[in-house]
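Q: Structure for this?
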Amino acid sequence: MRFAAGAQDISVSASPYKQLEQEFKRLHALRGALSLLRWDAAVMMPRGSADIRGEQLAALETEHHALLTAPRISRLLDRAQANEQGMEDWQIANLREMRRERDHAIATPVSLISRLTKAVSRAEVCWLDARAQGRFDQFAPHLEEVVHLVRDKAALLGQALNLAPYDALVDEFSPGITTVDIDTMFKALSRRLPALIREAIAEQEGRPPQPLAGKFPLAKQRALIVEIMKQIGFPFDRGRLDESEHPFTEGVPGDIRVTTRLDATDPFTGLLGALHETGHAMYDLGLPQDWRDQPVGRDRGMALEESQSLLMEMIVCRSRPFARYVLPLLEKHFAVSGPEWDVENLYAHLTRVRRGSIRVDADELTYPLHILLRYELEKQLLFGELAVRDLPEAWNAGMQQRLGIRPANDTEGCLQDVHWSVGSFGYFPSYALGAVIAAQLYESLRSDVPALDEQLARGEFSGLLGWLRTNVYGLGAKVPVQDLLRGATGKTLSAAAYIRYAEAKYLGPAASEAA
Amino acid sequence: MRFAAGAQDISVSASPYKQLEQEFKRLHALRGALSLLRWDAAVMMPRGSADIRGEQLAALETEHHALLTAPRISRLLDRAQANEQGMEDWQIANLREMRRERDHAIATPVSLISRLTKAVSRAEVCWLDARAQGRFDQFAPHLEEVVHLVRDKAALLGQALNLAPYDALVDEFSPGITTVDIDTMFKALSRRLPALIREAIAEQEGRPPQPLAGKFPLAKQRALIVEIMKQIGFPFDRGRLDESEHPFTEGVPGDIRVTTRLDATDPFTGLLGALHETGHAMYDLGLPQDWRDQPVGRDRGMALEESQSLLMEMIVCRSRPFARYVLPLLEKHFAVSGPEWDVENLYAHLTRVRRGSIRVDADELTYPLHILLRYELEKQLLFGELAVRDLPEAWNAGMQQRLGIRPANDTEGCLQDVHWSVGSFGYFPSYALGAVIAAQLYESLRSDVPALDEQLARGEFSGLLGWLRTNVYGLGAKVPVQDLLRGATGKTLSAAAYIRYAEAKYLGPAASEAA
């Protein structure tokens, strides 16, 4: 059955600012629809329907772009900006975010975006094949085309936003973060991490964890994950948990869709994937409700998003308190028992440090080095300092230098990530920024909530979430990320807390508590 | 992760007709997105997310309406129409369908549609409560408001389309069908059906079917349904089967989503629901591939849609040949056996005629009388000949007169259907038209494919689908429905074939084959 639906009309007698709110409410609804289409494509869609979905996504993106770049929006922005006196802080911040969005959308001509979209859709298909067969040579011409177009886009974006080209790309994903911030962070990490990794591995080699054997049927894994997510506070009447090839979070606050990937031989893959995504979801769900359909009510970019998933997964859940909480649940759901099922052995599994080729399998100490390599290479590719054909060798040399290992082939090397094939340059740094921001927030959180560990060991997440609601979630996009950090931690972005956290966790007295 | 996507640009150097094709391709993609949002709302969406989904649907409807009613479309339509010489038949038909769509969209002012949308969304919520509690008095003011607004809409639509107001409403769902066609059909049905029902019930009372007992676990029901749908040819790589409160079909050819409702005590509810929807799906999947994103490539309205679902469910699957095919599958999937599991007893279950209050539970003989009642009442409501407050009594009197039964309460009476609460007037006739068209097509199909029964008994659907592809599916919306019928059956719409079919099935020698 198809039933008539209708149209909303926007009152033109409202103030320019109020008219903008109405326009961005429509844009928000379109973005929500786009998000659902992407979720469905990864979780529900029949395999043969990808082309059709691609057309639907493109049509909605086009409408979103057309609405956002309409001359009417620019006129309203100018008129609203001339009337900022008397507006509330939130509204002024909202106006700033509206302008930012419009500036990004309008900076690149539709013809360039269209060429990039087509190049990217060819490149992604080719990348899938090339990765499966370890044939970088087949992928190279496509990557070359994408790099050229992204270079043009970066130049135009940079001009329009008054930023260096690479900074303009970063600004799309993590507004308020610059190359200077990223370089400073990576410099500090490069200075300490390689030795820290060596020491942690040496420390762990003395007491290798005992294997955690058992039977882990998928239905029981699902039940365990749902129980823990409910305990954290994930609202299953306004969200879902499903399975997909790679874990992700989509949707909008009020309809959040989390996925994970289950492995019948290992319950931790699915659980930790779900907890990572629950970190994203709790952030999104905690965004200011009153502004939920406005730009100022959104998350504060990918670096902060990733800080929330890593804080939840890496810091909160790969911890002794969490191991204490989760051990009885593992025993209950999987009927496991035996001396190896104890807190210290579980904790040893959750915090194992190992050098490996694959980013998504990396532990929290080696992970930033994977990102550093990608950050350096993608800048070299964009600035013409590295030819696409020389990427595999540069990758392998970088891995050797940074992590002391050489990938067995390009599938485990420069072909492992999807990002470049889909034109996402400037995105990788947000992963490392997220790790650093997570540790910085956590240091203040611990000092503000002294009972945190005891709470977590009891499965109580209210202290954690209360602090995050006040200091992160509830701010939405009201202030720039550096201001948010200063408010929450007293400092702007710095890798110092991350290094303190890593040293204490992997080398401090607690690291060898069981020894 | 969020990746950049892009915009399509429409070349302005193409001919007006080609430009229109591009515009309608975008509209098609938007409609596909809307369809997915509706599917998700009924099948996957968390319960608490309905408000958000409502906003997303409204935003997409608004964009669809804005694109379709843009002055540019009208200009292009005029210019294209002036250049029809040299265009192919298909293209001329496409232009006609484009204009029809635009005419419908532009006839009603946005302000009226907006008021109707709001009234309808209040009315539907209230209807759910009123139905649950049997409180028509609570629903009446909302229905009154909806009736008023639909009356205004019908008047404006009628003026714009040069049709009588009620015909204009029918035209939205079943273009090419008029009140005269509907009245003629119902007159013929009213003349024969009441006696036919009496005779069929008397005939069946002499040999009541034996109960079909067994255990029918839902997972096995699903497996049975999937096996049969695959056998019919439903492509699970370009479609899905799920469960929902009411069976429906959504999606677009290439990504068709069918649902059914399973009942653990009765395997036929779920199976026949799925087969009904498979009839819709096979029609949609068989629409002309070359025109899949154009108006001329769509289905030929709800009357023809319903003819395809009823042909599949009522005629093809509630038959002896299908009972022969499906009996071994029932035995295999449910491990049932015994003398009651034989073709004649199964067939007796599939064709049982009973007078009841509920439309969706009605058999194929009593069903048109349920529709006739609604058709008469909705016209009286719209023309002011029946006050909303008098509806329950008019309903009950009509049921008494047409079907000889009086509903126990309004929940089983005038509150049972959602249609009026959501403003769908002019929709009900398509159900009865579908039954009549199905029988008319089937009569020609049987004569063109003499081996049909033997094929169906072997689970071979190629003869059936081949004929439908040639005579129905493959035409899309190229010709008006009456021309389609003339081409397929040599006659325009007539209830004669339906009556012949019903007499043969329920009273003819085959009806008592087992006696």
